[in-house]
Design a protein that fits this description.
The protein is built from 5 helices and 10 strands; from the N terminus they run E-E-E-E-H-E-E-H-E-H-E-H-H-E-E. The protein is of the alpha+beta class. The strands form 2 sheets. Strands 1, 2, 3, 4, 5, 6 and 7 form a 7-stranded mixed beta sheet that branches. It has a 3-stranded antiparallel beta sheet with strand order 8-10-9. Strand 1 and strand 2 form a beta hairpin. The radius of gyration is 20 Å and the shape is elongated.
Length: about 230
């Protein structure tokens, strides 16, 4: 039986990945210099076209692996960008994703070969096309995620101090909040556990290290971890 085809214009489909990492108390985004036209030489998000036998999710995972050398990365779809003139080269529909990785785990040599660099979110350069909008939407998605669950498993080292977790939230929200209330809320959720050794690099007394419990050890919870509005 013959396969039906559609008499309709064909479009290109791409994925673009907003890859967040955390380092030196800064939330960072992985950007690279685009090496082809249009937009050659400009700052771009890692991305690529979806292959014929790929889903957009598979394409995004491939881009992440080719860029960082990592698999099993947290990945979430954000939005579909479909404005007809968004790419001056051709009609391209792009599906954006955001990913979270531990910077210390990625393949530094591979990232360098891709012409990619970690840029603090507060120091973003001008980006090509609509990539700045993608970053803004990804940051909002990350803030929403952080408001509803204790994040850090994908961004912090395996062992971390509570102050490092607080600093991560500062970096994500860039707004003041009461660390003592935050500490009480996080501890009440019972998602992290204190370890019996300390970080003594910054004080003689030292600060206890923590780690995230395994997912199967965590009881479901509801309520906000961090309020997006009117936070004190």
């Amino acid at each position: 039986m013959p396969v039906m085809t559609y008499n309709h214009p064909k479009f290109l489909v791409a994925v673009d990945c907003v890859i967040f990492g955390y380092e030196d108390s800064e939330l960072k985004v992985l950007l690279r210099h685009r090496d082809f036209d249009p937009g050659k030489g400009g700052w771009s998000l890692p991305g690529g076209f979806v292959n014929e036998k790929e889903s957009v999710e598979d394409a995004a995972l491939r881009v992440l692996f080719e860029t960082t050398g990592l698999k099993d990365i947290f990945l979430e779809q954000i939005y579909t960008f479909s404005e007809p003139n968004r790419d001056p080269g051709e009609r391209v529909i792009s599906v954006s994703f955001f990913a979270l990785i531990k910077i210390q785990d990625h393949d530094t040599e591979l990232v360098g070969k891709n012409g990619a660099h970690w840029i603090p979110i507060s120091e973003l350069p001008e980006l090509i096309f609509d990539h700045k909008v993608m970053v803004d939407q990804a940051l909002l998605a990350l803030q929403t995620k952080a408001a509803n669950e204790v994040i850090g498993r994908e961004l912090l080292p395996d062992f971390f101090t509570f102050n490092q977790l607080v600093d991560l939230y500062y970096a994500i929200y860039k707004r003041p909040f009461d660390p003592s209330n935050f500490r009480k809320k996080v501890k009440s959720l019972n998602v992290i556990e204190r370890l019996n050794f300390k970080d003594k690099a910054n004080s003689r007394k030292g600060a206890f290290y923590y780690r995230f419990k395994e997912p199967e050890q965590i009881e479901p919870y509801s309520g906000m971890v961090f309020r997006l509005h009117n936070q004190r």
